[in-house]
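Aim 2 progress update. The chain analyzed this quarter is reproduced below.
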Amino acid sequence: MDRGTVGSANRGRLQVGVRTEGRSEIVTPVGELDHHTAELLREPLERALDEGRTRLVVDCSLLEFCDSTGLNVLLGARLKAEAAGGAVHLAGMQPVVARVFEITGAEAVFTVHDSLDAALASPLAD
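Predicted structure tokens:
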């Protein structure tokens, strides 16, 4: 079975966009989040927290894959955000990514929204 680039060391498989909208820092990972690319997401999440932005919204609508390393990056950001009085909101997860959160039970510890607009409109745990 050809799995293409899954598991390869090609860091080009993940790009991360960051922008601020109101009180929210929006982080948008595009591609595959795994052991080889996780640092590309960890860095902007930690930078936002270090700069005092504790309401993080991760727009997962273009995230095609997430393994346990990627999940751990998000869990770590959640712990740091909550310790600072904030939260991590996840938005627009594709079914394959949502399944990882469902299987591991991680969906129960995140605020998950159907869309980025819903996450931005949410008054929860700001």
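The beta strands are 14-21, 24-33, 55-59, 63-66, 87-91, 111-113. The CA atoms of residues 68 and 126 lie 26 Å apart. These observations will guide the mutagenesis experiments scheduled for the next reporting period.
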